[in-house]
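Go through this one:
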Amino acid sequence: MKKIFLFLFVALSTTVFAQNKLTVESGNLDVLKGQTEVNVERVYGDPLFQADNFTETEYLERRHKETVAKNGEAAWKTWIDFWEQHVETIWTEKFVEGLNKSKKIKFTQNAESKYTLIIHPKWMYAGWTGFITQPAKLSADITIVETANPSNILAIIKADKIEGIGSKVDYGMEYGRISAAYEKTGKEFGKELKKALK
């Protein structure tokens, strides 16, 4: 009976969160042909969290209650400090790290380049660790624009529930698992870029 339950649980999780792909919605990545460096920006906006589509405020309120109930206010202070570091810098850095795995073009923040790649996270799923590990997932809009004229959108790419696997991060905490999803999204973009620039 336990085996049946486990199988159904895994099957359901796979069905609900199985997309794990990038789709070019408009334009073409070959616009970057001949470029050696591309600027990267992150527009955070108001992403939703978990299958319930919580706002970040709602997600953090729930996490605060859980943490304080189990480990006290000091543990929450430590947790939220790490969370804020990840939101402000680390997630974007991991995305850039993933982009640069392609080695085709150098991606960097604050670069003076002709084109800018913008990632706009729309939805994040924190996953969990335990007997079964469920990776974090990221859905995001990725746009390529002309740096001098950002209203000139050259390509739009949709990242749909990219799973954060294969990264050297702290999988024990949500923010670490989510950073892995950012890195994997960068890697997947790099794969698509390689195809486009052949």
